[in-house]
Amino acid sequence: MTKTVLTYGTFDLFHIGHLNILKRLKEKGDRLIVGVSTDEFNAVKGKKPVVPFEQRRQIVEAIKYVDLAIPEENWEQKRLDIKKYDAKVFGIGEDWKGHFDDLGDEVEVVYLPRTAGISTTEMKRVLSEFDERHVESLKNTLDTLSQIVKELS
């Protein structure tokens, strides 16, 4: 009998933390279904992804641990998808600890630890600091380094 694991996320700016959680979730069953939050649902959650939904869905679906990527369109969908896909495990990052305990009447709820030192929020913060002045300064530095390498060659 197939043991289906279900998870959800935005998966914006896909990174090693995302990959790690998907790998660990796949180890908990035979089939991993991932709900990728749509741009519209992210707006409801107050998030604005950098990468559009369809591209995020395709990236997630291409991961070898993922058997199916579906759109996540609202909060209520989780309970419906548990029934629809006959999920036995609902897993998500520990930053959501306690938020989905109510699903425990239908499925085993697992909160997994985050990968230390990486987060989409932090990546976005660092990227936002690269305003035009910083980019111009970085370009000038790279041009100078390039000139030094040419002179030393």
Automatic annotation (TrEMBL):
All residue ranges annotated as the Cytidyltransferase-like domain in the record: 6-124
Organism of origin: Glutamicibacter uratoxydans (Arthrobacter uratoxydans)
MF-aspect GO terms: nucleotidyltransferase activity
Entry keyword set: Nucleotidyltransferase, Transferase
Keyword presence, Transferase: yes
Protein name: Glycerol-3-phosphate cytidylyltransferase
Coiled-coil regions listed in the entry: none
InterPro entries for the chain: Archaeal_FAD_synthase, Cyt_trans-like, Rossmann-like_a/b/a_fold
NCBIfam families per the UniProt record, alphabetical: cyt_tran_rel
Any Pfam family the entry gives: CTP_transf_like
